[in-house]
Fold:
Amino acid sequence: MPYHEMMVKPMREEVTRLGIKELRTVADVDAALGSSEGTAMVFVNSVCGCAAGGARPALAMAVSHGVKPQQLYTVFAGQDLDATARARSYFADYQPSSPSVAFLRDGEVVHFIHRHMIEGRPPQVIAEEIIKGFDKVAAEGARAE
Structure:
């Protein structure tokens, strides 16, 4: 059963006010990720403490980096269940976790940040990992890890 919309609204807004496009339906996800051209980041948002204390603040720090994927997206685990499941199908080789961040180039994952890479780490360290993903996905000829 999904979390109540009012409960997650501030957590959604913390990400969308950064200019990251929210994908709330399966159709949204397929429209955004269905084309295998270009670069994208998908931030899997969550209500957990490591999202609140680490992942979202880190994302806010990282988006000021000069190099970013062409598209920045987010889905909300625990709220938009179908959209989140569909987004995860685009990076199905990686165990589902939330929060997490996938970086795709031409439909292939080139970098992935799992929850265990977020939990217990300060936002600055997580931001460095996100920036690493930005740089990696934007690099000419990037290949999957």
In short: Confidence is low (pLDDT under 50) at residues 141-145.
